[in-house]
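Marked as duplicate of an earlier ticket. Keeping the data here for the record.
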Amino acid sequence: MINSDILRRIRYAFKFNDKLMLEIFQLGGIVLDKDTLINHLKKEEEEGYVPLYPRAMTGFLDGMILKMRGAPKTPTTQPVIQESFSNNLVLRKIKIACEFRDEDLLAILKRSEMEISKSELSALFRKKDHKNYKECGDQILRNFLAGLHGYKKSQPTELKTK
């Protein structure tokens, strides 16, 4: 999928406004002005479209994690080795930002009428060199982002005790 398309779909799913989008980019180490953001959000065929490069998209997703979960309690001293940009990375970072469990991801995909098994889902989160690794295709990511709109993570109303 094109990064600008992913960005538009995330914006729609989470109902982010321009101000919040710029703040999230900044948390991820990417400084943009409003005009540049608007040009990134345009479709390829629209006048003024500016492609969103993988580094900027990764910065946005990292900023989204920081915005939604907060800064880590213990700062890491070792640099994080970033895998190459892929649909799997987008899915993983959204999962982390929203603190989704496998059941949430399966429910989101089901909302968009796409059902995959738990083992197929776990294959999307494996390391690339693992024998059971599966590349996240555009269709899976597109359906996930579509199902994400309006999804509310179920929260237990009360804890049951014996």
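See parent ticket for discussion. Residues 97 and 135 are 21 Å apart (CA to CA).
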